[in-house]
Design brief:
By secondary structure, the protein is mostly beta strands. The protein contains 1 helix and 11 strands. It is globular, with a radius of gyration of 19 Å.
């Protein structure tokens, strides 16, 4: 089978954004950009195995069980006053939504990719203290408890915050 189109995609221009559900269980229709994200860790889906062996089996046999995301996701941001304000606004919106039974979705938009990646999660409530060393960029990660890995779905064009 011949390969056509782009030989691969760059990570340049990726946009990380969030949105809080307006209807419980439904992907938000608006997402707000979180600027200066410089690392988005992968989410692996490790399939648990269920032992399906019987007494007559001379070798163990398994069937696929749940897929496990690992439970935590920690995007990294360049820490500036503006970024900290955006992250605090996101955390507040997530907490307010959760009080009403509404979840927070995160979208990773890759240029030249038809769909975006979506993760539903609960961010922490405070900006953690980052590691600091001499002559380095000040970055910090936020911890997001993964509620659901949705995966690839139709893009929502993200917008700038207020």
């Amino acid at each position: 089978m011949a390969t056509t189109g782009l030989p691969g995609l760059s990570t340049l221009g990726i946009i990380f954004s969030y949105g809080v559900e307006t209807t419980s269980g439904t992907k938000p229709t608006t997402f707000t950009i979180l600027h200066r994200c410089n690392d988005i860790p992968e989410i692996t889906l490790e399939t648990e195995t269920i032992d399906a062996s019987a007494l007559e089996d001379m070798q163990s046999r398994y069937i696929a069980g749940r897929q496990d995301t690992g439970g935590e996701w920690s995007p990294v941001f360049n820490l500036t006053d503006e970024v900290i304000t955006e992250l605090e606004e996101m955390m507040e919106a997530a907490a307010t939504g959760l009080e009403s039974g509404l979840r927070t979705w995160f979208q990773v938009t890759v240029p030249n990719l038809t769909k975006s990646f979506f993760v539903v999660g609960q961010p922490g409530s405070k900006i953690p203290l980052p590691a600091m060393a001499q002559n380095e960029l000040l970055t910090g990660s936020i911890s997001i408890a993964i509620d659901e890995y949705v995966g690839l779905d139709t893009k929502v064009v993200p917008t700038e915050g207020d």
